[in-house]
């Protein structure tokens, strides 16, 4: 068994520019908060007036269809884009990330949809890609392959991934397993907030369930998780808070106790839009069963959600 401590890891890695990541906060403590955040590209408003929080040991789900502004939102959290308006707070203090490296140094890790893995490289090489551990000094400095393989095996086992051999190419793993390797990597390197960009979008039912299980495990380890998805049936089982986006605007920021799965699905589907589509089909195809079915769905779909009254709280200092 490896007995490396955190300081040992940092001493033996070839990276010298990494900054110490603050310790993880207690469950329920707000790590990241966005207040009326927005992003404009010239005259185009990609996002405007979005507010939510990301707390330790909780999952904040960001939902919306294509073009809703989800990618713009996570790029601002990840330091790839600078907000044009609003505030981004980290541990209660306003902050601006100049680059993704700055966000990563603050403990905000992003797992993008394409995963940024090298399919033909072994699992352990992908796990430490860009942060390789070394041993020895001067001209005798070399990769510490044994330690990296051991740590990779142990960290994946902690996440419930049982690999026979970490030397196998990562391309031989299923889509869900590759997602989980990326999650385990972010956890190992000290992430406090884990942003997942539609991790279940290209997966089947079984593999989606595997990824949702690992999202729940990350939450249970005290991470604040931002789960980007367009599927409310994936978001609701693991989510604690739900931010809904539509064409760059927020439709609401709800606690789980304030919204049901049916209401969440309704806001995503848009009852008024279904009704409009049903009328259009009826004009084009009179008597069409599809139009009748859409009209029935629209009549059963609520168009608004009224959250229960909440007590006001003083703004955080």
Assign the structural class, choosing from mainly alpha, mainly beta, alpha/beta, alpha+beta, or little secondary structure. alpha/beta
Determine the number of helices (DSSP H or I, runs of at least 4 residues). Answer: 11
SS elements, strand count: 12
Which strand order do you get reading across the main beta sheet? 6-9-10-3-11-12
Q: Rounded to an integer, what's the Rg over CA atoms?
A: 22 Å
Task: Please mark out the parts with pLDDT under 50 across 5 or more consecutive residues, or reply none.
Answer: 1-20, 307-317
Strand content: 15-25%
* Main sheet summary: 6 strands, mixed
Indicate how many domains the architecture comprises. Answer: 2
Tell me the CATH architecture of the largest domain: 3-Layer(aba) Sandwich
The coarse silhouette is globular
CATH fold node name of the largest domain: Rossmann fold
What is the average per-residue confidence, as pLDDT, rounded to a whole number? 80
Q: Residue share in helices?
A: 25-40%
Q: What gap, in angstroms, lies between the N and C termini?
A: 45 Å
Q: In CATH, what is the homologous superfamily of the largest domain?
A: P-loop containing nucleotide triphosphate hydrolases
Q: Can you describe this structure?
A:
The chain is α/β, with parallel strands linked by helices and 317 residues long. It has eleven helices and twelve strands. It has helices at 6-12, 70-77, 100-105, 123-127, 145-158, 175-188, 205-220, 232-238, 261-269, 271-284, 289-300; strands spanning 30-41, 44-55, 59-63, 85-90, 93-94, 108-111, 134-135, 142-143, 193-197, 224-229, 241-246, 249-255. It has a six-stranded mixed β-sheet, with helices on both faces. It has a four-stranded antiparallel β-sheet with strand order 2-1-4-5, covered by helices on one side. Helix 6 (175-188) runs parallel beside helix 7 (205-220). The termini are far apart. Residues 1-20 and 307-317 have low confidence and may be disordered.
């Amino acid at each position: 068994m490896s007995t490396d401590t955190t300081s040992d890891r940092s001493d033996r890695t070839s990276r010298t520019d990494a900054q110490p990541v603050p310790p993880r906060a207690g469950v329920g403590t707000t790590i990241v908060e966005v207040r009326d955040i927005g992003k404009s590209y010239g005259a185009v408003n990609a996002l405007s007036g979005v507010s939510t929080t990301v707390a330790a040991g909780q999952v904040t789900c960001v939902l919306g269809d294509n073009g809703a502004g989800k990618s713009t939102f996570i790029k601002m959290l990840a330091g790839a884009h600078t907000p044009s308006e609003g505030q981004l707070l980290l541990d209660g203090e306003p902050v601006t990330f100049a680059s993704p490296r700055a966000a990563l140094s603050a403990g905000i890790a992003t797992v993008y949809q394409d995963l940024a893995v090298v399919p033909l490289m072994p699992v352990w090489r992908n796990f430490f890609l860009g942060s390789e551990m070394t041993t020895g000094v001067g001209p005798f400095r070399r990769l510490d392959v044994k330690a990296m393989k051991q740590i990779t095996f142990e960290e994946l086992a902690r996440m419930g991934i049982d690999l026979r051999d970490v030397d196998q190419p990562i391309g031989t793993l299923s889509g869900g397993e590759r997602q989980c390797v990326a999650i385990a990597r972010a956890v190992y390197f000290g992430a406090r907030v884990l942003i997942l960009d539609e991790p279940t979008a290209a997966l089947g039912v079984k593999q989606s369930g595997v990824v949702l299980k690992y999202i729940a495990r990350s939450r249970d380890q005290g991470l604040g998780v931002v789960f980007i998805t367009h599927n409310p049936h994936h978001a609701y089982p693991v989510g604690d808070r739900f931010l809904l986006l539509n064409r760059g605007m927020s439709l609401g920021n709800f606690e789980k106790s304030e919204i049901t799965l049916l209401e969440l699905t309704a806001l995503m589907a848009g009852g008024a839009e279904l009704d409009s589509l049903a009328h259009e089909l009826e004009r084009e195809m009179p008597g069409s069963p599809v139009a009748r079915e859409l009209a029935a769905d629209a009549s059963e779909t609520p168009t608004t959600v009224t959250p229960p009254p909440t007590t006001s709280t003083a703004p955080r200092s």
